[in-house]
Amino acid sequence: MRTYPCIAAFSFVVLLLIQDVIASRRREAWESTEQDSTPGVLPSFKEKPTHVTYQQGEEAKLECSVNNLGTKKVIWRRKSDPNPLTISRRTFVDDERISLQHVPLTPHWHLVIKNVRLDDAGQYECQISSKDRDLRRYVQLSVKPGKINHEAQAEINITGKTYVEKDHVIRLVCNATGHKQSPDDLDWFLNGQKLTTDMDKKVTIQKSVSLMEKTIYSVLEVAEANMKDAGIYVCRTSDLQIASARVDVLNGTTNTKNAKRGTEKDSSKDNALNGHKDQLTGSGTGGGAALHQQCTFLHLPVTLTLCVALWTLRHIDLLVYPT
């Protein structure tokens, strides 16, 4: 009866090994199938307009539709700029007017430019990620001057890093556009307290106004930020437009201590796992030695089990791809 624990241990290890190999082979087969749904067929573009014209302030749409895209990606860029505007459905330009219009499971990947401007005019490139440089098409965008929309919607936003290392600079930018004219003034607040330029606290605020664009622009900088400078920053205009952003100040010392504590926890887990392995393999003391003594009488059952495992591994393809 002492032989049963050893047989169970060896059988459990062998079954886990076989299950892992079968799962790995099936996963490889699935991935190879997913890589190209129609092998040997290159993506191709559908016929779409190659020259579009819009009036200043309108929403421009540059169309690009692709057959047999597979796992490749669609990239939009201006021909004059090597940097991408969009890759797949992600936008890689800091311009909220630019986005990608795509409905899942459809071949359409259209570039959209809201409130199009005169300087947006030019040639745009729709490219498929491939070594073949012929997998691209060009769309020419023309923009006609138009009347300025004096009824434009008032907008306000804050940009800047929301995670800052201790002793580094917090820099936030607030843009506020008025309804008929630029707001008269703009104020900054931190956790409800108004901020002003204060050299002792190393806080500086700069403002500028564009009458043509009806926009007030303000830059807030906090030099050598510490933990007290973290919190909710609010930008508020004189006509009560409000935007907010949360800024966290990271303390490198605290992170280091947390990392060390995490390492100690991981080490304790590793020690526990190693102890468990020692019990199974018989390399530990006490219980491992007793298990080794029990296994000395099991040469024949163990040999048979290993033979079955080796045969299964050599013929694993028959299990993964049964005929």
Would you give an account of this structure?
This protein is of the alpha+beta class and 323 residues long. Among the domains are: 44-144, Sandwich (Immunoglobulin-like); 155-252, Immunoglobulins (Immunoglobulin-like, Sandwich). Helices cover 29% and strands 32% of the residues. The chain contains 5 helices and 20 strands. It has helices at residues 3-35, 252-281, 287-295, 299-314, 316-320; strands spanning 44-45, 51-55, 60-62, 66-67, 74-78, 84-87, 90-91, 98-101, 110-113, 122-128, 136-144, 155-159, 163-165, 170-177, 186-190, 193-195, 203-210, 215-222, 231-237, 242-250. It has a 6-stranded mixed sheet, with no helix packed on it. Strand 5 and strand 6 (84-87) form a beta hairpin. The longest helix is centred in the N-terminal third of the chain and has 33 residues, at 3-35. The two termini are 42 Å apart. Residues 29-38, 254-273, 275-298 and 318-323 have low confidence and may be disordered.
List keywords for this structure.
323 residues, alpha+beta, Immunoglobulin-like, six-stranded mixed beta sheet, 5 helices, flat, disordered C terminus, Leucine-rich repeats and immunoglobulin-like domains protein 1 isoform X1, Ig_V-set, Ig-like_dom_sf, signal, Immunoglobulin_dom
Strand order of the largest sheet: 2-11-10-5-6-7
- Name the helicity range: 25-40%
Instruction: Give, in order, the helices and strands.
Output: HEEEEEEEEEEEEEEEEEEEEHHHH
Question: Count of DSSP E strands?
Answer: 20
The structural class is: alpha+beta
Question: What does the overall shape look like?
Answer: flat
Average pLDDT figure: 76
Q: Which regions have little confidence, pLDDT < 50, spanning 5+ residues?
A: 29-38, 254-273, 275-298, 318-323
Number of helices: 5
Task: Name the CATH architecture of the domain at 44-144.
Answer: Sandwich
Per DSSP, what share of the residues sits in E-state strands of 2 or more residues? 25-35%
CA-CA gap between termini: 42 Å
CATH class of the domain at 44-144 equals: Mainly Beta
**What can be said about the biggest beta sheet?**
6 strands, mixed
- Determine Rg (CA atoms, Å): 32 Å
CATH 4th-level superfamily of the domain at 44-144? Immunoglobulins
Instruction: Return the CATH topology of the domain at 44-144.
Output: Immunoglobulin-like
Organism: Aplysia californica (California sea hare)
Region (Disordered): 254-285
Protein name: Leucine-rich repeats and immunoglobulin-like domains protein 1 isoform X1
Biased composition (Basic and acidic residues): 261-279
